[in-house]
Amino acid sequence: xxxxxxxxxxxxxxxxxxxxxxxxxxxxxxxxxxxxxxxxxxxxxxxxxxxxxxxxxxxxxxxxxxxxxxxxxxxxxxxxxxxxxxxxxxxxxxxxxxxxxxxxxxxxxxxxxxxxxxxxxxxxxxxxxxxxxxxxxxxxxxxxxxxxx
Length: 149
Prior knowledge:
Layout: H1 2-10, H2 26-30, H3 33-36, E1 38-40, E2 47-49, E3 84-89, E4 95-100, E5 104-111, E6 116-123, H4 124-133, H5 135-142
Antiparallel strand pairs: 1-2, 3-4, 5-6
């Protein structure tokens, strides 16, 4: 009996072992295991049967949710400045790692060529550079297209 049950578990077109609720037994033998509602466990390789066919493609909720929440990177797009890894030194000279973040600010700047305001997230160093050289020149040097934003 053990050998026959192992052979049924390894056969992908095996039929349900428990008593069927259908009137004809011949209809069960012709259907493949995927139509009968079998799923294969990824941990032990055993097949588990369900009363109704398992539908994986249909989500439970009506709106799809992203797997992760997008996070804005702490990098200035104009200057390329990013976080610096440094040591935090205590009074006993014990060193622990810490991040020194860039001073990023949200600013609405007037874009003369587009005749409108552009909302940007940039560092204070980039803001000083824009005041000195102009928004168009700094964006062109950084390779940023302001018409998208």
